[in-house]
Amino acid sequence: MQTSQFGDAVANYRAAQNSWARSQLVEDVIALSPSDVVREWALTAAAETPTETLAACVLGDLAERAGNLAEARDWFRTAAQHDDFYAYASLASIELEHGEVSDAIPLLQRAAELGDPETMVCLGAYFSESSKPDFARQWWAKAANLGVSKAMVYLGLLAEEQADLPEAQAWLRKAAVAGNVLGMNLLGNMLYDAGEISEARQWYQRAASLGDLNAIFNMEDIEESLKAQSSAQILSERGDAGLEVAA
Fold first, then answer.
1. Residue 232 falls inside a structural domain
2. 79 is in which domain, residue-wise?
3. What is the pTM of this model?
């Protein structure tokens, strides 16, 4: 691995704003060279610049892939000492994979506190499943304020579950405007149920244009419904006209 590649990787890693993006950068570094070469570079980099936590996370990832969880935990903890949210998220992932939920939650909370929106969404899901909707709302709202459309969808579903339809529609609309396909579909469903067929169709069309099959099926249902309504209206008008003639 060349020095320039390391410099670019470190800069990109530092700038990445969520754990998913950092995980992709770790994978990119590992893919640059054979694992023994990457490991040698990472060991040197971790010793020379410990505050640049990419190298420690690369070593943690390599150890985890090799099944050496003790070493993986050690490297991720080294990175976590420098407030690397991806390191905390990786430690939490290891605990979750082994059923240690009580150990994972504080790690997720620390990653979320450090600003990682991915773990905010995960925490919201955990608290929702634990029947703690207020905590779920808190973390999803923080993620939504950072622009995470998935969190907006979850907030909409939570509000709908609590029978707050205006709040639910507001969050689903935000998710849909942000480009979330599920948000478009759910907003369409809500609008359709409220009798706002025209706008519901618009959102289904947007989702369908992005290749979403559910939206395509929803569009077909709307068209069939409108055809049935049109036919019923025509028959009704004909019946009224017949009655007028007879009179």
1. yes
2. 1-119
3. 0.83
